[in-house]
Amino acid sequence: MHPIHNALNVFNEPLIICGTDPMTGVYRDGCCNTGTNDRGTHTVCAVVTNEFLQFSKSKGNDLTKNYPPTNFKGLVEGDKWCLCVSRWIEAYQANVAPPIILKATHIKTLEYISLEALIKYEYVPLTVIGWTELNNKLEKTFKFNNYDEVVIFSNKVMQIAINQDHHPEINVHYNFVKVRITDFEKGAVSEKCHRFISAVNELTLS
After folding, report:
1. Full set of structural domains in the chain with CATH
2. Among 117, 168, 180, 189, which residue's beta carbon has the most beta carbons within 10 A?
3. Strands 14-16 and 3-8, sheet pairing
4. Is 28 left (phi over 0), alpha (psi -120 to 50) or beta?
């Protein structure tokens, strides 16, 4: 992905492309850039979820519907799209905000919401963080040198589960721990699951 000339992201760095399939941005250039004629302030580069799409539809903006006059094909889960910052904040307040590609999110977004809040929703591809999806569950095996490390890690994972009120399956062995998570209310992986695995991954970086 390439920087967009003169535009900055929330890190005060050159803004990168959000998405070109479908082509997004108020100027349909793949970028969450903005200007005086961007009434909606389409500055948030989101990876949309089914949960968010249904929320948007309930607010009167059905992003899943085709609109031939503008060559717009309805969005599906996983599409990258430049959202109005006000809509993303509404979703955030309703606990259905989709994850964000921060380096493709325009710096003007920070006039409406803090970077600290945005970072909690940073999009991290599963292929990068090592989790796999199987039977509507995310799972990952963490390996350790001894049982003491296994116990310490397991306790930290359980504390995350308590703090987030989101409860995984934890299989504890002598030198590894297997963690599985799903959203039982939805019967599938949700953004709530992604927030959980992001927190668990941070344990291995500390």
Report:
1. 3-123 (3.30.56.110), 127-203 (3.30.1360.20)
2. 168
3. antiparallel
4. left
Strand ranges across the sheet with 169-172: 132-134, 137-143, 176-181, 169-172
Tens digit of each residue's pLDDT, the chain (206 residues): 444 557 999 999 999 999 888 889 988 889 999 988 898 899 999 999 889 999 999 999 899 988 777 677 888 888 899 999 999 999 999 999 999 999 999 999 999 999 999 998 988 765 556 788 888 889 999 999 999 999 999 999 999 999 989 999 999 999 999 999 998 887 778 778 888 888 898 887 65
pTM: 0.62
